[in-house]
Amino acid sequence: MTTDDGEGTDAGGVDWDARAATFDEEPDHGLRDPEVRAAWAARLKDWLPGRPGDVLDLGCGTGSLSLLAAEQGHRVTGVDRSPAMVQLARQKLAGRHAVFLTGDAARPPVDGERYDAVLVRHVLWTLPEPGRVLRRWRGLLRPGGRLVLVEGVWGTVSPVGIPVDRLTALLAPLTARVRVERLSGDPALWGREVDDERYAVVALRE
């Protein structure tokens, strides 16, 4: 997950280029644990189209979710602000039907391409004007395509993130076909028990 403001640096001043080498050490980033990897693979199989299609992974990081999508037969385009993350993603998916681009997730450099699914994990909450960004992402979908948004609210003293009610309200003008899955209760996804708000939203383009 990397976003805006300078090469490899997000709006909060996080230098994702510097963090790229250790990014995959988090269980839900690198998906190195077989149980965690299997949990994410099962969720993606449910969220993404049932037949092979074109998937745009925005804020793709080192490409762990991109790799799962590719293993399920999808053709993947990944976009990340951090050149170091993009390089690691290219290495991770070498030899597969995948392309990785350096760019802003809010304004993906995809030259008018359209996709069967736009996959975004832990990125939307960092972006200004999320409603406008969602409209832009919806415009990247083919008819019948879907947004797959994995988000949450983290922390107790100064929580950050986007609550599910706010996200579904932002999606309401774009589509009535929205499905929410609560993810906090599935420790296999995170490699541990969690008690904050974590969820996925699948929104279909009608």
UniProtKB/TrEMBL annotation:
Origin species: Streptomyces tunisiensis
Keyword Membrane attributed: no
A molecular function (GO) term: methyltransferase activity
Domain of life: Bacteria
Upper classification of the organism: Bacteria, Bacillati, Actinomycetota, Actinomycetes, Kitasatosporales
Cross-referenced Pfam families: Methyltransf_11 (PF08241)
One of the protein's GO biological processes: methylation
Signal peptide start-end: none
Ranges for domain Methyltransferase type: 56-149
Protein's UniProt name: Class I SAM-dependent methyltransferase
Alphabetically ordered keywords of this record: Methyltransferase, Transferase
InterPro entries: Methyltransf_11, SAM-dependent_MTases_sf
